[in-house]
Amino acid sequence: MALDLRPEEITSILKKQIGEFDGKVEISEVGTVLNIGDGIAHVHGLAGVMAGELVSFERGGATGLTLNLEEDNVGVAVFGEDSSIREGDTVRRTGQIASVPVGAALAGRILDALGRPIDGGPALAAAETRKIELKAPGIIDRADVREPLQTGIKVIDALTPIGRGQRELIIGDRKTGKTSLAIDTIINQRGEDVVCFYVAIGQKRSTVVQVCEILKRHDAMEYTTVIAATASDPAPMQFLAPYSGCAMAEHIRDSGRHALIIFDDLTKQAQAYRQLSLLLRRPPGREAFPGDIFYLHSRLLERAAKLGPARGGGSLTALPIVETQANDISAYIPTNVISITDGQIFLESDAFNAGQRPAINPGISVSRVGGDAQLKAMKQTAGSLRLDLAQYRELAGFAQFASDMDAATRRQLDRGRRLMEIMKQDVHVTIPVAKQVAIVYAGTQGYLDGIPVNKVRELESALFETLDREPAEYLRLFARDKAMTPDVKAALEAVLQRVAVRSRT
Amino acid sequence: MTPRPKTARRYAQALLSLALESDSEHRVAADMDLMARAPAGSPELTGFLRNTRLPRDVRRRTLEALFRDRVHPLTWKFLLLLESKRRLDLLPEIGAAFRSLDDARRGIARGELTAAARTADDAVNAMAARFSALLRKTVLLQQRENPALLGGCRVQVGDLVYDYSLAARLRLARQALTGT
User: Fold this and answer.
1) Do B159 and A72 form a contact (C-beta atoms < 8 A)?
2) Out of A33, A298, A394, B170, which could bridge A89 as a Cys pair, Cβ 3.0 to 4.6 Å?
3) Residue spans of beta strands (DSSP E) within A284-442
């Protein structure tokens, strides 16, 4: 259809408009603060404001996010310092939905929940921004999770493998090594094509500094962005930080690359949201959490996805962390997040204190989709590992009371003890998958059975050293086949024979 | 005390519809205007309205002396109702709510014109006429002074602010230059 607009007409319209507006005018919609406190302001006016819109406070220059739209007032969560805001102050609409900068400029930076640098570095030169709250990709856009995301941790890669696009929960009491697992996963992405995001929610500032130092020391900071809303930040920032981080990571996913995001931890975010909701006078439910606490986490974690080829094939893997009290995974937030995620890695303080580190309980840790994504070689090797460990756990409890056992039982216990030993791993020392397969193969095929339990780890390091030092056929073949073909098996067994013989003498 | 706008609005709505039925809305509106303004100027009146411990007959007699002969019979009945419900303290809020309801009915929008210095009345009226045309409502502007605007003027009607002031232009220029 031809557009029927004559130039004279446009001119006359413009003339009329100029006649109506002499001079430059700024039209804005305002409201006044009714009350302010604890990071929440109730505002009168702002009749046309959208839910989730950013508003700016005239005094102090703080911004806020509208959360409650009520008949005669608007509930606003204030970002930043709220002590300078007074009753009766003017609040202005910005017309913008909260968004954060995205793109390559973020790598290596430490940002706050609104994407502003807090590492003392230069301003972000990000050309693009992205809305903080976006809907997760639809069903058509997605593909199966089938590429592995190697964590570099033996027990995870062998028993609860994580695929790209998966959501795997890390859950456990305080001081059980949850954060270390997550950091090790980031460290292991060095040299891979995965961009990492670490969202620290409600943590001590000193902890965040520590994490950044560890990442720097392992040269992992250059492909990692840290989003920090620490315990001293207001609750709205802690509530928002995971969404900001997710928006940044989604940009990587949607540009066809792979991203990993760690939410450390969602318990704190839920608590921050509970605080917000109670101050906004939303009705409390179980444990005083608001009714939409499930949706808070489900809409966040749904954004982790493996996209299909039509959408570029990118992926976003999420590793949310949840802290339990006294190993109680049936509390409200843990059950919620367990039911949302595609599996969980359960850490126990008893195992941790007994020296079994990482303190993963292989019995109740599962990965619901990672099996498809596991490397074929690992799948072939670790298949019997899970069974052996399960049998060991069953027998170990029983064997404490038994005085004498038959030979078969004793053999199984011995095997189990050695397998538990090879599941141990030092913190921040990640192991490439070829070596992981080698040691797991040694364990399940009985190469360790003759070795005293306390010598198993020595043998492991001897094995890894041999693989590093000698121009081993095994590593070359493994890189070629990525499966336990007869060639690979033969090459590995040759190495194992030599190492085992050497360590016996 | 927390504001109770919903309660006030309900009373105001009821009074307005009664006034409309009896064609006395202008008289009642003037009365309610008085009710909205009077307590602000007199702390004693505010104290009286809020005091629910006075014996009922004292309250009623005081009300009679104060308002009986000055207001429309409908307003007087309304005051008696408020007294019996112990809601007299809501009176200023009901007055304000009544005015906004009446304004909405008559298509009136009240606003403020803030300028750095005193503005001539006909300039204010001219602005009001412009805005009446722009918003398709009868705009009534009240004048205010605020030297912080430096020059020009700012018009607020409802929640909307039209800022023609020098201060706003300087702020816009600063935002454009610094990109913040």
Assistant:
1) no
2) A33
3) 315-323, 343-347, 366-367
Cβ–Cβ below 8 Å for B162 and A34? no
Under 8 Å between Cβ of A9 and B121 = no
Only one residue has tokens 């809501």, namely B90
How many CB atoms are located within 10 Å of the residue A3 CB? 4
Q: How far is B157 from chain A (nearest CA, A)?
A: 10
Rounded CA-CA distance B46/B50 in Å is 6
Q: Hey, are the CB atoms on B168 and A26 less than 8 Å from each other?
A: yes
The tokens describing A216, both together, are 């720097």
User: Which positions in chain B touch A24 (Cβ < 8 Å)?
Assistant: 164, 169, 172
Query: Residue-wise pLDDT tens for chain A (505 aa)?
Result: 455 667 777 777 767 755 554 456 778 899 999 999 888 999 998 988 998 899 999 888 889 999 999 888 899 999 888 888 999 999 999 988 999 999 999 999 999 999 999 999 999 988 899 999 999 999 999 999 999 999 999 999 999 999 999 999 999 999 999 999 999 999 999 999 999 999 999 999 999 999 999 999 999 999 999 999 999 999 999 999 999 999 999 999 999 999 999 999 999 999 999 999 999 999 999 999 999 999 999 999 999 999 999 999 999 999 999 999 999 999 999 999 999 999 999 999 999 999 999 999 988 999 999 888 999 999 999 988 988 898 898 888 877 776 678 888 888 888 999 999 999 999 999 999 999 999 999 999 988 888 899 999 999 999 999 888 877 788 888 888 889 999 999 999 988 888 887 776 6
ipTM of the predicted assembly exceeds 0.85? no
Residue of B nearest to A25 (CA): B164
Q: Running DSSP on this structure, what letter comes out for residue A25?
A: -
The model carries a pTM of: 0.86
**Whether B152 contacts chain A with CB within 8 A:** yes
Q: Which residue matches tokens 């009896």?
A: B22
For B7-59, the DSSP string reads HHHHHHHHHHHHHHHTT-HHHHHHHHHHHHHHHHH-HHHHHHHH---S-HHHH
Chains A, B: CB pairs < 8 Å: 42
What is the distance in angstroms between the Cα of A46 and the nearest Cα belonging to chain B? Answer: 6
Is B121 touching A (CB cutoff 8 A)? no
DSSP state of A29: E
Report the b/e string of A317-336 with b at 16+ CB within 10 A.
bbbbbbbbeebebebebbeb
Give whole-number Cα distances, A256 to A309, B2, B132, in Å: 9, 54, 54
Segment 12-31 of chain A within 8 Å of chain B by CB: 20, 23-31
Q: Which amino acid is at A58?
A: E
Is A478 in contact with A437 (CB distance < 8 Å)?
A: yes
Which are the catalytic amino acids of A? 368
Q: Taking a C-beta distance cutoff of 8 angstroms, is the pair A271, A241 a contact?
A: no
CB A274 within 8 A of CB A293: yes
